[in-house]
Amino acid sequence: MTEQKLNVEDLINYSRQNWPQDNMDACATAVRLIRAGDLMLSSSRKIIEQLRLTPAEFDTLATLRKMGAPYKLTPSELCRANLLSSGGLTKILIHLEQQGFISRQTHESDKRSRIFALTDAGKCLIEEVMATVLRDQEERLSSIYSTEERQELNRLLRKFHLASSYLPNQASNES
Fold it and tell me: Is the Cβ–Cβ distance between 121 and 101 less than 8 Å?
């Protein structure tokens, strides 16, 4: 039998029943945000893996693409943008290069450094995969929220992320 996660509302109700002395509103918000993120990521991950990429490979190709032409970054820039360790990124870059999705080039101003560039094949692949992921996200969100609700949700989440970047004790690798 497959174990299924408890419904979010049940989790929140259990918390309220068993910690009645505490204000669980912040916990309820956090649990709902985490579960919503998990659901969106899970759906995207399935699409990405069906198209024969790992989530880390997808993130790396998407990062190169979203930074704009000429679609080139150093490993350090990729690590900062992807929140990956340099060791983890090395394996990903080697695999993507072997598949012909990126190329390794010598840095123009520092001949000791390398730059990784999206190839035409890599650009075509990430654009196809991203379009599929975005269609899925659009279908999921538009089936639940009106346009106005999505705009309000985006406004609130943006406010949270902007405020969070100024709070003390934030992890150094937080986005």
Answer: yes
How does DSSP classify residue 109? S
Question: What are the tens digits of pLDDT across the range 92-131?
Answer: 999 999 999 999 988 777 777 789 999 999 999 999 999 9
**Beta-bridge mates of residue 105:** 115
Q: What is the pTM of this model?
A: 0.76
Please state the domain extents for the chain: 43-152
Q: Which residues contact 165 (CB under 8 A, 6 or more apart)?
A: 174
- Per CATH, which fold does 43-152 belong to? Arc Repressor Mutant, subunit A (1.10.10)
Phi, psi of 6 (to 5 degrees): -65, 150
Give the chain's length: 175
What pLDDT is recorded for position 173?
45
Pair of tokens at residue 45: 């991950």
d(CA 56, CA 54): 5
pLDDT in tens, 10-31: 777 777 777 766 677 777 888 8
In DSSP notation, 128-171 reads: HHHHHHHHHHHHHHHTT--HHHHHHHHHHHHHHHHHHTTSTT--
Any residues with CB less than 8 A from the CB of 127 and at least 6 apart, and which? 65
